[in-house]
Each structure stands twice: as structure tokens, then as C-alpha cells.
Amino acid sequence: MAYSHYERLSALDDSFLELEDVNTHMHIGAVGIFDGAALTRSDGGIDIDAIRALMEANLHRVPRYRQRLARTPITRHPVWIDDARFNLAYHIRHTHLPRPGDERQLKRLVGRLMSQQLDRGKPLWEMWVVEGLDGNRFAIVTKIHHCMIDGVGSAELMGSIMRTLAEDDPHHDRPAPRWLPRPAPAPHALLAGEVRRRLREPFAALAMIRRAVAHPLAAAEDAYEVAASVRDAIAAGLHAASPTPLNVDIGPHRRFDWADMDLATVREIKGRLGGTVNDVILAVLSGALGWFLHQRGLDVAALDVRAMLPVNVRDASDRDMGNRVASIVARLPLAERDPRRRLECVMAATRAAKHSRQAAGVRMIEEVGDRTFTSLFVQFARLSARSRPFNLIVTNVPGPSFPVYVLGAPMRACYPLVPLFRNQALGVALFSYSGRLHWGFNADWDAIPDLHDLVDAVGRELEHLENAADGGSRTASGVTG
User: Fold this and answer.
1) d(CA 436, CA 266)
2) What does the alpha-carbon distance between residue 208 and residue 385 come to, in Å, rounded to a whole number?
3) What pLDDT was estimated at residue 337?
4) Which of 4, 140, 168, 205 would staple 32 via disulfide (CB 3.0–4.6 Å)?
5) pLDDT for 364
6) What's the sign of the alpha-carbon dihedral 403, 407, 411, 414?
7) Residues 270, 276, 278, 284: is their CA dihedral positive or negative?
8) Confidence (pLDDT) at 152
9) Residue 37: what pLDDT?
């Protein structure tokens, strides 16, 4: 039999393909901002050829970036195969702002880039090098389909081309390793692989039954845990959150905005008032959202607003591409005016969500889909999207605590982007880097034209919470009146 190679997408990876349509684009992204002196050419432009050469020299570390989608016959399950026509120049694009470009123009450009779907006939990623930013800065905008990678994996990918020293990469001038695409399997080989996979499942089930007979007490405990986990996941997926202006039919156009915080300040608040960094983030966001929706005329005390919080389940030794996340849902105390009390409410909500086994239940449903038909997990995801179990996604990805460089150019900030799901006009992603906490706000263009007001409110709410942590008076914040 002739050699060929393919890799099957997991149920979770497949769900991001199936949930995508003309209005819901399932790509994640990030905007890295760099000082440009080290990469500035004599004509004032950025040395794009050096950046392309660096990427080409490092692509062997992430083979998925040279792979495209294919489908198995009959079952139509997606698989990854090497793209024999891969062209790096297609994926790394070069553009510029009208000089001197400001951050507002960059945000508008990012919104336009993220409003366009990726071409499924090619590897599902793009990298835009944007020059012309004032202060002799440039940006690198990454755009990667969620079926390829999760937020943590994306951060690790960018780390593969970055260095911890200001000096140029000593290997960047070496020729890139020769790449030979592995042959794609013929349709009959893909079908045979699916048949073999299905035939193995009964034997796996028989082995589980034998273990249960040998250890009935342990099997009963495991069965109870599985049932409880799946019950909590389904219950969370069917219990609708309140309708808000954040939960409308979205269109294809996006706005992108960002904010920055001192990570030491957030940790100091955590140290004085308790909780985790994520709890502080949710308390700040809750106050900002409460004010934002109140300004739109809503009675926030009557709202049940919830955030879906992705949970990284990637093992420290796991270097595979793809998604390794589960999720929990927590209620946001938008109506609580006291910053300290709001943080306490968030801590209680996240603690209850973690104890509810929601994340484990979603993982169980995903595993069943992997073992049977991934359409089972896709249907669960679609049902959840229709029933609106949460109003928005809030995700926090840890980055390096030290500066990193691309060919000697230091990265000053990195703003992440999470995709919008059906009927969700706002997504919030955070990335910690070199002592700063960078917020990325992805929004539907038409539903949230006043996104900048929410961003400003986030900064004010941090100040209110910091004042409370310093022992200041419990001045009411958030909702007024």
C-alpha cells in the first residue's frame, strides 16, 4: 500500500467548522504591536522579507500550518492533509496605514480583516504585517481558524518565532528546512480508515465492560460521576440567560477595541480581597457591563447575565495542535454597585461553576462524539447556541512574563480576539504579557457602535475596585440611580 498521511479532527475541532456561517466567523486572532527600529529598512518601511524568512524557517515546528481540510467519503468527517500547493506568500500579507497611522486606524483595519472568512481550500490562517503606525511602530495581526488551535496553542505558536533576547535570531539567516508534502490518501483509503475506526469501538466497549465486572464498586462511582457531569453540562446548556442588546442576530462586520492594565495592580487587588486574577477581571467587567447596559435603559437588577469561561485542559506535555478546552458558565453580578461585594459575588459564582462539573460534562459529551459521530457534539453545540445559556465569552490566556522579540523588534503589547457565536455581539479576550494585562474586545459592528464606551468603563471599574482594596470608602460604581 502506498504511503499517505492524514489527521482526523476531533469533535470539538469539527464543531468550530460546523458552527461557522456567513455571519459567525470562527477564527481567533491577536494584534501584536512592536517597536520597528530593528526591522526598519533604509526607505522607512518594515523588512517584510526578513519576517517571511523567519516564518519559513520555523514552520516545520507547526506542521498544521501547511495542511488543508479534506473530507472522508460518505461520513464527510473533516481531516487534515498536507497542502501540496502551499504558498507562504499567500498567508503572510503586507499592508500599511496612511502615515502617521494611529491606533484608531489600526483598530478599524483589524475589524475589517476579522470580518472576512478564511478560504477553506487553503491552510486556515493569515498573518498581516501592518506598517505605518506612529512612533516607528508596526503590528502583526494573526488570524487562525478555531478548528486548528485554541488560545493557549496560538500563544505557543507565536512563541516559536519570538526570542527572549533583543539580538537577532542566530538561525534566521539559515535556509529553511526542505519541506516535502506527504501524499494525501485516496478516497477509498479514507473510507477504509473510517471503517476500521468504527470496528475498533465495540472492542473498546467490551474492555470497559470487563473492567466494570472486575471492579463493580469503582465502576459504579465512575458512572455516577459521568452522569452527574453530563447532567450539569446539559442543564447549563439549556437554561437560557436573559436577552440583552448583546444578544441579537449579528452580521458579518466587526469592531475591535482594546484596553491595558497593570497586572501587578490586579494581583494586588486579588491579594487583598481574595479570589483569582480571573475573578478580579470578571468583577471589573461586571461593573462595566452593568453601567453600559444601564446607559442603554435596561433594568440590570432584573437581568441574569452569564459569561462562558473556557478552561484550559491541555496537559503540560501536550504539544499537539487542536483545541484542548472545556468551559464553565458563571453569572455576572451586574447590578451590584459595591466593588468589593461584586468581587465576592463573582468568587461565589465561579466557585459554584467549578463545583458543578460543567467542564467535565462537556468533555464527556465531546469524548462520546469522538468515539461515535462528531455530529453528536456538533448538535449539542448548536442547541447551546440556540438556547443562549450565556451572553458572552470571556477568556484569559497567560503569556510570557518577560519581553519577547521578533528579529530584534520588541513586542510592546498583544491584544487577543475571540470569535462571536450566534446571537452574541460581544466577546472579551485577555492576554497577560510582561507585567501588563491586555484586553481585546470583539464586537458586531452594528449591534455595538458604542464599544469604546464599554472599554472606557472597564478602566473606571478597575479604579473603583482598586480603591476598595486600598480601604477606601465603598463608593457606589457601575449602575447609578
Assistant:
1) 10
2) 33
3) 94
4) 140
5) 58
6) negative
7) negative
8) 59
9) 92
Pairing outcome for strands 92-101 and 78-82: unpaired
Name the one residue in this structure whose C-alpha cell is 472606557. 456
3-state secondary structure of 457: helix
Which residues does 381 contact at the CB level (< 8 Å), separation at least 6? 15, 18, 19
Give the cell for residue 254.
466587526
DSSP summary character for residue 219: H
Tell me, what's the pLDDT at 276? 96
Rounded CA gap, 346 and 343, in Å? 5
Grid coordinates given for 14:
469539527
List the strands of the sheet with 409-417, edge to edge.
Answer: 92-101, 125-133, 137-145, 27-35, 409-417, 405-406
**Alpha-carbon span 292 to 98, nearest angstrom:** 33
Q: What pLDDT score does 3 carry?
A: 78
Question: ∠ CA 343-449-395 to the nearest 5 degrees?
Answer: 40
Whether residue 82 contacts residue 199, with contact meaning beta carbons closer than 8 Å, is answered with no
Per-residue exposure over 29-42, b if at least 16 CB sit within 10 Å of its own CB, e if not:
bbbbbbbbebbbee
Give residues with Cβ within 8 angstroms of 181, minimum separation 6. Answer: 66, 82, 83, 84, 86
Torsion sign, CA atoms 182, 88, 403, 459: negative
**In which residue ranges of the chain is pLDDT below 50?**
171, 203, 205-206, 209, 212, 219, 223-224, 226, 473-476, 478, 480-481
pTM: 0.86
Q: pLDDT (tens digit, 9 = 90+) per residue, 173-213?
A: 567 788 999 999 999 888 887 777 766 655 454 455 455 45
Q: What is the DSSP letter of 23?
A: S
Can you give the pLDDT at residue 410? 95
User: What is the per-residue pLDDT for 224?
Assistant: 43
**What does the angle CA 215 – CA 216 – CA 218 come to, to the nearest 5 degrees?**
70
What are the two backbone dihedrals, phi and then psi, of residue 136, each rounded to the nearest 5 degrees? 55, 45
